[in-house]
Amino acid sequence: MNSDTPKARKSILVVDDEPDVRMILEALLTQSGYSVSEARDGREALDILADKKFDLMILDLMMPRLSGEEVMEQLRLQERLKDMPVIMLTAKAQQKDVEKGYKEGASFYIVKPFSNTTIRELVSCLLEDLTEEEREEVLFKLMSKPPSM
């Protein structure tokens, strides 16, 4: 990146009820140059989204107060938020859960435990200016990779 033309920092909202997951993702994404905000549950996420728009959201599905599925329903009803990329990050690993996640509008679905490398590459793929061919190449590489920490 050319320091003469600083690129605006992309903002990410991490929504998870597990403090350790939020802490790991915040550290990983901040190290990668992103601005990161956190929410402890779906209700807090919607409250934050009422005041600020993010470039991407990483969303857990199973949370108190408001589930990730309920958050997705609300997002898709709001014109200014409906196209925001969302990575669903969850312990729900059955094929029916994955299919439901994509049907609800997830850009990508990752099962916990997750690989830091996968998160970093996927976020970069969704937020950086890549050609469709470059994006497909990154996604194919991620899909072909065995899960690892």
Features:
45% helix; Rossmann fold; 5-stranded parallel sheet; disordered N terminus; 149 residues; alpha/beta
Short précis:
The protein has 149 residues and is α/β, with parallel strands linked by helices. Helix content is 45%, strand content 15%. It has six helices and five strands; from the N terminus they run E-H-E-H-E-H-E-H-E-H-H.
Explained architecture:
- With 149 residues, the chain is of the alpha/beta class.
- The chain has one domain: Response regulator (Rossmann fold, 3-Layer(aba) Sandwich).
- Helix content is 45%, strand content 15%.
- It has a 5-stranded parallel sheet, with helices on both faces.
- α1 links the parallel β1 (11-15) and β2.
- α5 runs antiparallel to α6 (132-144).
- The longest helix is centred in the first third of the chain and has 13 residues, at 19-31.
- The protein is globular.
- Residues 1-7 have low confidence and may be disordered.
CATH level 3 topology: Rossmann fold
Number of strands: 5
Largest sheet entry: 5 strands, parallel
Overall shape: it is globular
